From TrEMBL:
It holds the Pfam family Sugar_tr. The gene is SLC22A31. This is Solute carrier family 22 member 31. GO terms for cellular component: membrane. Residues 426-506 are annotated as: Disordered. It is a multi-pass membrane protein. It is found in: Membrane.
Length: 506
């Protein structure tokens, strides 16, 4: 530790660090540059909390901007501001300046991530939505795994911050080349921007080699329903309208709750890894690898089984691992504690990722940006639990563990109220979102035709078939005549049919 004495030891060095290698290099340099030790060591987790607060605020504010100004416009705006802010962080002169710039940088990165996530999802057909999102998750993990090598090459945290900011400049090519990041035609049509939507559809069709001369793909056929109402002005929806709905608000609340639990409960598991993984780099690579394992697990299972069953399974396993560690840590062997902690981290990461993906499928297009931003913000609230506990020197950790373990069990009951979105198209309007219904928990193995006009009888299928034949015959006779009196209708119903009793009424 160099010139620092024993009181300088920060929890950063004795437990897995909650953050990226970039944060680690920055914090280690911050400790030397601004003497953030002893009585000032609480400023280190405060900086982490401020950065997560920036992501939280960016998800909310720029999520609303996605629904009002478009996915592409929000992406370009966030990216253009993120570049100078990243350079400003590398040139920060003091701790207060660093906090302010990191807060704003986190907000802009959140806008970039959210707009990319929504646009990517809206350009995919139902069979490929999950795979495209998970492939993007693998790229995220690959970046985390490559970051230590970049940190070793840069050595200084300012150089590392500058190098990472320059990588964002590669995304700036999307500004000058709209074909790399087109505006979502789905959002344009949902907000009644017909001319822009038509151009977007034509560009996508030409890029995919689809002939627009075909009658099915003609403009008149594709936009006839919207154009029949004239030339409507663009119609935008606000997130406040979601609070007046029932199904959309319920789904958003449940998925935000599960995303919050999945992120917040990870601190309970990572703290249990501290005695067994004292090396920082090993624990960092373990957390990144478990994130990749969670992505792979979702790729293999979600499209086969469904969104709701896998989310339910991961939440149950996360809750069980948390409860076992909460109640039996002092009685369990070390290797069992290690296994439970590793499994808990993997399943909790799967819960967070699947909750966000599930929410993007059940939220309507007109409010998808703002709604998904709120759910991501809930996940960052849970993720901030770790740094907040460090500010208090981990006082109250047992209560934190009890609360999140209880929430995990409670969320199991709420997940059963969610609909299933596997293989279904994305809802476009608020009415589409309200029409979603949850499937039955247990499906019947036999498929029976329930006839509402006939009560089941014990005489068997022969009696049911005879009654149904008499009903069809009587109905045909009633429809064949143009005018009937009530008395004539009753006589028609009482006429005998082949094999029936002339005196028996229906």
């Amino acid at each position: 530790m160099g010139r620092y004495h024993a009181c300088s030891a920060h929890p950063l060095w004795v437990r897995p660090f909650q953050g990226s290698i970039k944060d680690f290099m920055a914090h280690s340099s911050f400790l030397r540059q601004w003497d953030l030790v002893c009585s000032n060591r609480w400023k280190v987790p405060l900086e982490q909390t401020t950065y997560l607060l920036g992501w939280l605020s960016g998800c909310i504010v720029l999520g609303l901007a996605c629904d009002r100004f478009g996915r592409r416009a929000t992406f370009v705006f966030s990216l253009v501001l993120a570049l100078p802010l990243g350079i400003g962080v590398a040139l920060a002169l003091n701790y207060v300046m660093l906090l302010s710039l990191r807060l704003l940088l986190g907000a802009m990165l959140a806008g970039t991530f959210l707009s990319l996530y929504v646009a990517r999802l809206e350009l995919c057909d139902p069979p490929h939505r999950l795979m495209v999102v998970m492939v993007a998750g693998f790229f995220w993990v690959a970046g985390e795994l490559l970051l230590p090598g970049l940190a070793v090459l840069c050595r200084q945290w300012r150089l590392l911050q500058g190098a990472l900011t320059l990588t964002l400049a590669l995304l700036a090519t999307c500004w000058g080349c709209p074909s790399l990041f087109p505006e979502s035609p789905r959002w344009l049509l949902a907000t009644r921007q017909l001319e822009k939507g038509r151009k977007g559809l034509r560009a996508l069709a030409e890029g995919n080699g689809v002939s627009l001369e075909d009658e099915f793909y003609s403009q008149e056929h594709l936009l006839a329903e919207l154009e029949s109402e004239g030339a409507p002005l663009p119609h935008y929806h606000t997130l406040c309208e979601v609070f007046s709905t029932r199904v959309i608000w319920k789904n958003s609340l449940i998925l935000g709750f599960t995303a919050f639990i999945g992120s917040g409960i990870q601190h309970c598991f990572t703290r249990n890894l501290a005695p067994y993984l004292p090396q920082f780099h090993f624990s960092y690579f373990l957390l990144a690898t478990l994130e990749a394992v969670a992505c792979l697990f979702l790729c293999v299972t979600v499209n086969r089984v469904g969104r709701r069953p896998i989310l339910l399974l991961c939440t149950i396993l996360t809750g069980i691992a948390s409860l076992l560690l909460l109640a039996l840590t002092q009685y369990l062997l070390d290797w069992i504690i290690l296994i439970l902690s590793v499994l808990g981290i993997a399943y909790s990461q799967a819960v967070t990722m699947l909750s966000i993906f599930f929410a993007s499928e059940v939220l309507p297009t007109v409010v998808r940006g703002g709604g998904l931003g709120l759910i991501m913000a809930a996940s960052f609230v849970g993720k901030a639990a770790g740094p907040i506990m460090d500010i208090q020197n981990n006082r109250g950790f047992f209560l934190h563990h009890v609360v999140f373990a209880s929430f995990a069990i409670l969320s199991v009951l709420s997940i059963m109220l969610l609909p299933e979105s596997k293989g279904r198209g994305l809802p476009e309007s608020l009415q589409d979102g309200e029409s979603q219904r949850r499937p039955p928990l247990f499906r019947s193995s036999r498929h029976r035709d329930q006839l509402p006009l006939l009560s089941p009888r014990s005489a068997g299928h022969a009696a049911e078939a005879q009654d149904y034949a008499r009903l069809v015959t009587a109905t045909k006779k009633m429809l064949s005549s143009h005018r009937h009196t009530p008395l004539r209708d009753r006589q028609l119903l009482l006429e005998p049919t082949p094999g029936g009793d002339p005196q028996q009424e229906i």
